[in-house]
Design a protein that fits this description.
single chain; about 110 residues; elongated
């Protein structure tokens, strides 16, 4: 794996956790509080934050798909994880493992060339 692919994976990991946490925050603090109380001023900022993070996640997922040459099923899996509340946390765990494996493979390849 080259440096561009590794950095694309790392950027996706950086966005997956905030995106995963923004959706439950929107559901709990935005929607639920606006329905059971008069607190409705959180809905718009949380909704905008979640929408922005979701779009960034989708763009970065497409970038990883292009650079890492992932199969379509894997891309769909990570997209579904972004739609499920807190699914991005599991996606981050999988991406972290894949990123570590790619670093080990790159170091082994460098050692074999030397």
């Amino acid at each position: 794996m080259d440096i561009k692919t590794a950095s694309a994976l790392h950027r996706l990991r950086l966005v997956s956790v905030p995106e995963a946490l923004s959706f439950p925050a929107l559901l709990i603090f935005g929607s639920l509080l606006s329905r059971i109380s008069d607190i409705d001023y959180l809905l718009l900022p949380l909704g905008l934050l979640h929408a922005f993070l979701f779009m960034v996640y989708a763009v970065l997922l497409l970038d990883v798909w292009y650079k890492a040459k992932w199969p379509f099923k894997k891309v769909v899996f990570f997209f579904v994880l972004s739609v499920v509340p807190l699914g991005g946390l599991y996606g981050d765990k999988v991406l972290k493992r894949e990123e570590a494996d790619s670093v080990v493979a790159a170091r082994a390849r460098e050692a074999a060339q030397a």
